[in-house]
């Protein structure tokens, strides 16, 4: 009888150890299911089958309680201590394989949110989900820095182009003022009639030459502005591409790049208007010159045609002045956009 009881005690001790181990390993298998899919989960299922096979039922616990008494309680305490040690070991493993890389990702994400792109991200040798997430974040940071640098260079180039555009607009305004002065001189010379015909002819020839020169200058400046607008459009397109590569971080900048592209297109349209205006102006002046030369024999007709031509030139110069003012306003808008872009990019530390 004593031998049978002793055998039952040892059997109960063995099954209790199996029960505690199964409980801990099942908890561990559920906890690691997403990170070690397959192996640990199958181990947990296998142990669960062993537990079912070992016959751990309510009747067994009642039976063991009747035969063991205090020894059963002591053994349960030992099994619980072993389970706590096992859970502690599992916690250390979790801390090393999951919590540590997650904390590292949180730290680098905070640095990135503060605009710091100079991050020392070493490669992670794990190939689990956490390792893949860390490696994706590392590639994102490594690609973001060069993208911001390219955008900064593009912004500086665009700002330089805008300054040149403003300078060209100022030259056009100066030319318009000179043309206005010339037309006033033409009108004044036409009123002197016959006694100043010879002097007026010489002066008109000189003014015609100067006027043609100014028209050529205006056409040259308009061509240059058109080229600058095309370059700005190309820069805006490149900026849109870089913003698209930046993903969510570059969404706001993509809107700015599109606005710059639209402003560039408007500038090109304005330049085309300037060219049309200068061509119309040149045609009007040419007609006025032909009328002046054909009417030299009639002093009154010469004076009248000269006055009319001066009025046409004055109207054309006023139209050109309005056009150049619009170009100047567009250039200022582009300058404001460039300044906002530089202010935005200054947030990042490259």
Secondary-structure map:
Layout: H1 2-31, H2 39-54, H3 58-68, H4 70-113, H5 129-190, H6 197-246, H7 251-294, H8 299-345
Tell me what you see in this structure.
With 350 residues, the chain is mainly alpha-helical. The chain has 2 domains: 2-113; 143-345, Helix Hairpins (Orthogonal Bundle). 87% of the residues lie in helices and 0% in strands. It has helices at residues 2-31, 39-54, 58-68, 70-113, 129-190, 197-246, 251-294, 299-345. Residues 28-68 have low confidence and may be disordered.
Summarize this structure as a short list of keywords or feature phrases.
mainly alpha; Helix Hairpins; 2 domains; rod-shaped
What's the SSE pattern? HHHHHHHH
CATH topology of the largest domain: Helix Hairpins
Shape: rod-shaped
Q: How many structural domains?
A: 2
Helix coverage percent of residues? Answer: over 70%
User: How many strands?
Assistant: 0
Poorly predicted sequence stretches spanning 5 or more consecutive residues = 28-68
Helix segment count?
Answer: 8
Quickly name the level 1 CATH class of the largest domain. Answer: Mainly Alpha
* CATH architecture verdict of the largest domain: Orthogonal Bundle
Instruction: Tell me about the largest β-sheet.
Output: none
| Residue share in β-strands | under 5%
Overall residue-averaged pLDDT value: 64
Overall radius of gyration:
44 Å
Distance between the termini: 83 Å
Structural class based on helices, strands and sheet pairing: mainly alpha
